[in-house]
UniProtKB/TrEMBL annotation:
Sorted UniProt keywords: Glycolysis, Lyase
Keyword Lyase: yes
Family: Belongs to the class I fructose-bisphosphate aldolase family.
Organism from which the protein derives: Mycolicibacterium chitae
Domain of life: Bacteria
Gene Ontology terms for molecular function: fructose-bisphosphate aldolase activity
Name of the protein this chain belongs to: fructose-bisphosphate aldolase
SUPFAM superfamilies linked to this entry: Aldolase
Stored InterPro entries: Aldolase_TIM (IPR013785), FBA_I (IPR000741)
Amino acid sequence: MSTCNETAAAMTMPGKGILAADESISTMSTRLEQVGVVPTAESRRDYRELLVTTADLAAGVSGVILCEETLGQVFSDGRPFPEAIRTLGILPGIKVDTGAKPCPGLPGETITEGLDGLPARLAGYAEAGAVFAKWRAVFTITEERPSWGAIAANSSALARYAAACQEADLVPIVEPEVLMSGEHSLERCAEVTASVHAAVRQQLRAMNVGLAGIVLKPNMVIEGEDHPVRATPEQVAEATVAVLRAWPAELAGVAFLSGGQEPERATANLAAMQSHNTPWPLTFSFGRALVSPALAAWHGDEGLVEAGQRALASHVAANANALRGRERLQPA
Ligand code: 13P
């Protein structure tokens, strides 16, 4: 088995998910300001150290996605983040795209950038201790969007990134996110997500990316946040798994993003997925659904570090518990 296949299997091992703590400096700074914390390199570091040193995090988390700033930072005891995280029994990863930028020729749509010089950057990240990477492409639903151009350009970039990662022995998390913003129905989200995934699969094939050495990080198939009818977890699970069935059994695993769903809804949807028998594991790679309650509980108060950690621990436990349905489905 190649290094990537082994790492991808470890990232999606039964009963565990991935913690996405890779907000960019500007996004993280905004979130800190929202809870009254002055955003500095040190406050961002303190917050990430709080998250990853949560007691027994490794019981429900296989890997943590960091941003470039955190990858180069040290714990308060002086150990570099990647090394300290490895010691905790968790795999360190790194977000390598440089963000979704306005796409020339496609008003209102974005192209995720970061391909220039990527192989050299990946070598540096691997040297620093990262074993996997993440790249997020973003699609917005309207009546006319996403356009074919946005789907083609972003899928091509995702595949070029994934191929570069595998050459550097880093597992690529391939994240095509169809956003929840808008009034669209669950059916429309299903249609768009299926089209995006078809293009991504085609481009991954064109770039000879091995599916056993990637982790797919999709949105759940869900109605737009301004749609009048809210789908049940069973409806979300059924629609999501129906779209995912187009992925070959060889795929290492699927780790969902939470996409701005309330934490409890994301967990309920994840639990409902587990009653579907699929050839690949279905787990979580949540950002906001895991960390927002922790950030709110801590809000920069040194005396509340443990309260923040308890909030994270309870959401990790709830999501790890949601994965248990699978054990009943697929007895050893
Ligand atoms: P959310 O779970 O908050 O959507 O974040 C996941 C992520 O990694 C976005 O790129």
